[in-house]
Amino acid sequence: MIITDLLENNARQFPDDVALVEINPTEKETRRMTWRDYELVEPTLRAPYYRREITWRVFDEKANRFANALSARGIGKGDKVAILLMNCIEWLPIYFGILKTGALAVPLNYRYAAGEITYCVELAEVDALVFGPEFIGRVEEIAEKISEHRLLIYAGAGCPSFAEDYAEMTAECSGVYRMPHLTEDDDAAIYFSSGTTGFPKAILHTHRALIHACRVEQNHHAQTREDVFLCIPPLYHTGAKMHWFGSLLSCSKAVILKGTSPETILRAVSEEKCTIVWLLVPWAQDILAALDSGKLKKEDYNLDQWRLMHIGAQPVPKSLIKHWKELFSHHDYDTNYGLSESIGPGAVHLGVENVHKVGAIGKAGFGWKCKIVDAEGETVTRGEVGELCLCGPGVMKCYYNDEASTAATLKGEWLCTGDMAMEDEDGFIFLVDRKKDVIITGGENLYPVEIEDFLSAHPKIKDVAVIGLPDARLGEIAAAVIEVHENMTCTEEEVMEFCQGLARYKRPRRLIFAKVPRNPTGKIEKPKLRQMYGAERLVAAQNNA
């Protein structure tokens, strides 16, 4: 079985069931995301709230039309088609249309600048690029360079002259498509690493990995046809899409929400009867703050059907989940660990029955194996810190066009994650830090995640990032970038008093009160912080010399 079989099965068995809903919370967003093939759906306007939906039959037909359009232009098995779109109802039909031709889907981060788009398109040897209205300027800037051997396809209103119009090229295409023969071992997609520790790498996955992601998600969260999944994070990332894969496997509805405000999220859950919601830590914090302040009231929304809240992509403060369970006592809570190299979340899984272990990422997920090794590759004893390694059907095939990085990351059947971890006496795995983020100060190893977890328990601290900065005497020192809750003030003295609970050598030696930058999937952008504050420290040292 390959992943497109699941879509076709759903369209055949439940053609009139709603598959996808798109919600744009404001009229401005609605205008910006106008599509010229809206006649395929029935939009409902509730100013300033825009909603449209498609059934499984329409989903499959749209994928088939795009597959036919690509095939007519010579795109087929082994070719590569990049997707540069904001979240929208067309995203997934375009993705599956690509896969149906036997080509590889190559999702791109919507934050990429023109130069980064060029880099990724060339590294992945992309044959076509599908882009949306928000990216006209960026693509136009590089169109002459990248279009010589590549097809540019524009999905939106007002097609620029340098691209083909998605609506026009699919309008006359058949809603039926005869796929080439594909197996689970065929290449399916190239995802790019988040780039939090360097420039993105192109991660190659097969259909086997995608199918495994579906099974993992459905096994962990027990989706049925009655569930409704609220999808907020960007679909270009494995996290959002692979959580949605549980909906694909269970033939259940998913809601694609554009907007992350507490009111927008709670309204979507209420009106769409969402049962499963995946949040990032800042969104969960904002919901709690809005309820605590009285800005929003639970009784104004229909939330009884909401059964599961889960968080991934970043460490989760214990205090956040304790508070969440106080306000939403009937919710199950879960967290998953994974990375794009392991086809996203689920390689390690906490499990809803293990809420008492919040802080851990869990145990090996469905179909996965884990081990923690030392620098020589030997398994460490429980309680010792080492590098987390994964083994399972979702491990990447390779870093595309990068043999050196592949060899450094894949050791036989094992994927070396670059994450430092330890296993407790009950077999639960706790992340300690990224291997590259470990701070060596005066010969001692400091793990920023441990310090961040400690500081996040301070009632005035909304978010925190700990980084290493150069120091002439100690080599590096730990600096904490602290984002304070809105309408609160916090002093260095308060934080350092709180840090008396940390071992002396683990206490940050510099405090910086500023916003903590995170990428769209919630990961702290530490290279940006190191560049910003490391440069400041270097200038100061030179001035004092």
Describe this structure in words.
The structure is a single chain. This protein has 545 residues and is an alpha/beta fold. Among the domains are: 246 residues, 3-Layer(aba) Sandwich (Rossmann fold); 101 residues, GMP Synthetase, Chain A, domain 3. Helices cover 32% and strands 26% of the residues. The strands form 6 sheets. The chain has a 10-stranded mixed β-sheet with strand order 2-3-1-12-11-13-14-15-16-17, with helices on both faces. Strands 5-4-6-7-8 form a 5-stranded parallel β-sheet, sandwiched between helices. The chain is globular.
At the fourth level of CATH, the homologous superfamily of the domain at 3-248 is ANL, N-terminal domain
Assign a percent range to the helix content. Answer: 25-40%
CATH class of the domain at 3-248: Alpha Beta
Task: Say how many strands there are.
Answer: 28
Going by helix content, strand content and strand pairing, the class is alpha/beta
Strand-helix topology:
Elements: H1 3-13, E1 18-24, H2 27-32, E2 44-46, E3 49-55, H3 56-72, E4 80-84, H4 91-100, E5 104-107, H5 114-123, E6 128-131, H6 136-146, E7 151-154, E8 164-165, H7 166-171, E9 187-192, E10 202-206, H8 207-221, E11 228-231, H9 238-250, E12 253-257, H10 262-272, E13 276-279, H11 281-293, E14 308-311, H12 318-327, E15 332-339, E16 344-349, E17 363-364, E18 369-373, E19 386-391, E20 398-399, H13 403-409, E21 410-411, E22 414-423, E23 429-434, E24 439-441, E25 444-446, H14 448-455, E26 461-471, E27 475-484, H15 492-498, E28 510-513, H16 526-544
Parallel strand pairs: 1-12, 4-5, 4-6, 6-7, 7-8, 11-12, 11-13, 13-14, 14-15, 27-28
Antiparallel strand pairs: 1-3, 2-3, 9-10, 10-20, 15-16, 16-17, 18-19, 19-22, 21-22, 22-23, 24-25, 26-27
